[in-house]
Specification:
There is one protein chain. The chain is an all-alpha fold. The protein has helices at 3-8, 11-15, 20-24, 26-33, 59-83, 92-102. The longest helix is centred in the last third of the chain and has 25 residues, at 59-83.
Amino acid sequence: MDVLYELTRDLYEKQRVSDKYLEEHDEDNQLLNQYYSNAYYKAKPIAFNIPVYGLPYAPVSLRKVFRKMVINTSVVTLALSMVNPYLSLLMAYDIYLVLSTSRLLN
């Protein structure tokens, strides 16, 4: 046993298991698997386009929903203010939410 060779060889070589059958049939393995080839193959394109960030709704329907939100919020605010003017302050957060969604529709 060569002690100097064992000390100088790298860890990968120490952990590698050598298979005699694969070493004898290395040419067949290269031919079948083409593991060592530098050829690159162009992939087939996708047959149909997939929108990554597609909207599930049309912008027209979103604007209609926004108008309904504004109308409902204003009706409820008016109804609460008719009962007591201080009750309309309860709708301040809803009005804030409606106004914040208006930024998304621009």
